[in-house]
Structures are given as C-alpha cells and as structure tokens.
Amino acid sequence: MIKLILFFSLFANLCLFILLNKKKIKNFFYKKNITTVSIEFIHPIFKHKIINSETKFPLDLHVSKMILVHDKDYNVKGLITDYETWILSLMSKISPNIFEFGTCSGKTTYIMALNSPPQAKIKTITLNESQASKLVMSKGENKIAFKNIKNESSYNQFMFSNTDCENKIEISYENSIDLNIENLKNKYDLIFIDGGHTYSIIKNDSEKALQMVKKNGYIFWHDYIPGKTSTKDVYKYLNYLSKKIKIFHIKDTNMCFYKKD
Ligand SMILES: C[S@@+](CC[C@H](N)C(=O)[O-])C[C@H]1O[C@@H](n2cnc3c(N)ncnc32)[C@H](O)[C@@H]1O
C-alpha cells in the first residue's frame, strides 16, 4: 500500500513538473538554431529611454495605432499577439513598400496600413474559400497546417475594409506558389510571411521574399514555435534557412526576422 501511495505521489509530482516546465522541456527537445535577440537589435526605432539599470521607458516614437482584437470574444482566425502586432506597427513606420503573404481577417494588413507613412503601399495576398477548397495536399505535407489553410481562407471582408487607409492596400486572391515576382524584385522595405504553414508554401514564400526585399529591407516570419505540430514546418524550414542567411528570433515572440545587407 505504501509503495502504491509513493508511486502515485511520484507520478503526480512528475506530471506537475512537466506541466510547469512545458516550454523549457519543448525547447530542450526542439533545439533552436536561431539566436534570440531583443527588439533593440532589430532597428534603432526600438531603442528605449534608459531610466536606470533595470528600467526602460518607451519613447514618443513608440506610440503606434493599435487595435485590440480579443481572441476569445471576436472569433477571428490567425491572430498574432499584441506585442508582435506592436513590433510590426513600428516596422511599418519606416516602410513605404510592404508585402504580406497571408491576409486572413486583414488584422496585420490594417495595422501596417495604419502606421506606415502616408504614401505607403501594401500588397497582401491570400486565398479565398473557393481557391482553398481546390487545394490538393501533396504527399507528406503537414495535415494540420493544410487544414488550417482551408479554415483561415474564409474572409471576403477585412478589418481594413471601408476604413480611411484602405486606399493604401492592394489585396490579391492568388496562390503564392503561382505568384510571379518578375516585377516585384528588390522592391519591398518590409515583407511579412504568415501564409500557408506547410513546408512547400513556407519555402516558396521565403525564397520569393528573399528576392523581393530591398537592400536594407526586412523579412519577418510568424510562427517560429518549437514543438507545435501545426507550425512544425515553419520551424524546420527556418532552422534550415538560418544556416544560409542571418536570421534572428525576436525575444518573447514567435517571430523571426532577416535584414538584407
Ligand atoms: C495565419 S493567416 C494570416 C493572418 C494574418 N497575417 C493576421 O495576422 O491577421 C494565413 C493566411 O494565409 C493564406 N494562405 C495560405 N496559403 C496560401 C497560399 N498558398 N497563397 C496565398 N495565401 C495563402 C490564408 O488564406 C490565410 O488568409
């Protein structure tokens, strides 16, 4: 009997330990190849006012236009966090030409339009319901990522629809695999990749973005998450790509970035 109690208490402690250290355990098993940096490393726009050795305050430059989309209540798909949204909003301030892979509800498109310079142009591509329904999964693709593409391609109205900044945005319903980039090369200051999360799509979008980004321009990827099944190909591909080009993971986010020298 004592042995049984001992066994159960050991088992309960083990479960509790796993629960409390889920993130650390995942990070241990899914080794990150990519160095994590704080936001100050991305661009001088993120530099803070130093108050003392422990405290930083934001600068006026850090004020941005934000929207709070309460994920539980609003039932909007594909959302990025508020901190990630704010990082994109500051990057938009210094980016007159922006390209986005994956519009979904248009939340990130709207944020980039709200914060970019007045003459800025934003092109965003996405799939509509009918295009997504015709997609055929190739052998070996991630089933959950594929299912998510279908699920997230359901919008024909966007958060930026009928707003003052809608005229900055060009939305195109097209499969990024078929995107012709001949006239888009070296054009963009900022590219945000958050489209399909299967290996073939993340590879296609990244390879195209690397040609589309300008000198000194930036590419940001979403969903670099160790151990999450639906985004495992983003993690795998970025780890692979980071051996060829300098990619950094941004602390406290699921985002990575690359700056073209
Ligand atoms: C995660 S959501 C984007 C979320 C959005 N960036 C936001 O934060 O508000 C993914 C989007 O990528 C689009 N998408 C998936 N695969 C695509 C492909 N091959 N070509 C174009 N768009 C694609 C989907 O239609 C969906 O709108």
Keyword list:
single chain, 261 residues, Rossmann fold, binds S-adenosylmethionine, two-stranded antiparallel sheet, alpha/beta, 9 helices
How would you characterize the overall build of this protein?
The chain has 261 residues and is α/β, with parallel strands linked by helices. It folds into two domains: 30 residues; 223 residues, 3-Layer(aba) Sandwich (Rossmann fold), CATH 3.40.50.150. 35% of the residues lie in helices and 17% in strands. The protein contains nine helices and ten strands. The mean pLDDT is 94. It binds S-adenosylmethionine. The site of S-adenosylmethionine (SAM) has 22 residues, from helix 5, strand 5 and helix 7.
Helix content: 25-40%
Q: Say which molecules are bound, naming each kind only once.
A: S-adenosylmethionine
CATH fold annotation of the largest domain:
Rossmann fold
Task: Assign an overall shape.
Answer: globular
SSE string, helices as H and strands as E:
HHEEEHHEHEHHEEHEHEE
Instruction: Output the CATH homologous superfamily of the largest domain.
Output: Vaccinia Virus protein VP39
CATH class of the largest domain: Alpha Beta
Q: How many strands, what sense, and barrel or not for the largest sheet?
A: 8 strands, mixed
Query: In whole angstroms, how far apart are the ends?
Result: 68 Å
Provide a count of the helices: 9
Main-sheet strand order equals 1-9-10-8-7-4-5-6
Q: How many structural units, i.e. domains?
A: 2
Task: Supply Rg.
Answer: 20 Å
